[in-house]
Input
Amino acid sequence: MNRLTRALRWFIWDRFNLHSDAANAQDIIDSFRKGVDIKGTNLWIQ
Output
C-alpha cells in the first residue's frame, strides 16, 4: 500500500470514526429501563 493510500484511509477513518464519541451501552440500557424519554437526534448503533 503506498503512502497516498495510507494517508487517505487514515483521513477517512479519522473523520467517520463513531467509536471515539460513543456512549456507554450500559448507561443507555439503564436509561431505557428508567423510562427516560429520548428526544432529538440520538444515535445508538451496536
Remarks:
- The chain has a mean pLDDT of 78.
- Residues 3 and 9 are 10 Å apart (CA to CA).
- The helical segments are 3-16, 25-34.
- The first helix runs from residue 3 to 16.
